[in-house]
Design goal:
Largest sheet: 5 strands, antiparallel
Distance between the termini: 52 Å
Number of helices: 10
Strand order of the largest sheet: 11-10-12-13-14
Helix content: 25-40%
Radius of gyration: 22 Å
Number of strands: 18
Strand content: 15-25%
Order of helices and strands: HHEHHEEEEEEEEHHHEEEEEHEEHEEH
Number of domains: 4
Amino acid sequence: MMQISVSDFAEKVGLTAVGDPPNYLSDRRGLADLIRHFVFCEGCVTRRELANFLSPIFQTLHEFDQNTRSTFVRVADELAELGDLRSIRVGREHGWTRTPFRWIETSPTTAVVLGHLEDVTTGIKPSTSETSSDLVRRFPKSAGESNIESFSSTNQVTIEEWIGDGGWNVHRERRGGHDSDSSINAFWQHLLGELAQSEAVAANDGSLRILSGPPGGRFGRHNDESPQGRWGTSLDHPDGNYLACYRARNDNDWRFQLIEIKDHRVDRALSLENADEFQWAVIARGVHRREPEQIICVDREVRLTFPPPRQLRGLLNLLGTQLSAWNWQLAHPVFIEQLQYWMNPMAAAVR
């Protein structure tokens, strides 16, 4: 029986060894293509089914350990942030389903394709990405007979339509906020209203960490052994509302809260659903206090000074390539207002 080399097998499945040292799992673009192919073919897959599909591939490549499955999930979730897939619950399992085909003009010469393509891009070749970490399918808008603009205009969406109803409204609506005001300030006011009715108090085991300090400085990590940046443990703050976190079951389990401090003690506390709600709350508090969180743009490089919520991270990945945790290189320059879309009170549509 003829045997195939590891490198030949990798080429056949569309993976390239990248990184230092070279490895196939670092080819996020190739991995994303495999995930898209599987979900588009199946229509809907669970986390377990995705692992069952991908694990034998990486076992054959001799790159499978306890962290490999989490990489599969992370890349699939990033595709959901882009809108290529949609995150769903299948019983008790996390999963993904395909989304319909649409395309977005991201520059005068480039478009991004999202969703299930079927045969609509026959003859159209993607632009060469600068990095193997770019998950996005980018196409030239015009390429001779292969013109993406020839597709029905009903398939085209704008950046504003992709953003749709700001990501904070997912959390506001989950909390019962269904009024017509969908601004980020309304989200913050809703949190304050729930906090005012809460009788819960913050953790008293000494693990409470409070976010303070002006936007733009070093944010720091909430779960560092010794809090740094804008995180601290002191309750010596003026009376008011603050965002905080505490250690729950172990050092890897931290929960976020909105707290009220009175007379240098925590008077009330409201639990936040997850990191995404906390990240939107950070932005919302800054808008409410007229001390907005800072996005720094120099030429085509974007640096955030705060942790990005899922929707903002998806937008930045749509427009460019992630360089590090809070840094992106954009494919083309954009106005800062496009990135700080929550500052526009009229920004609300249906995604």
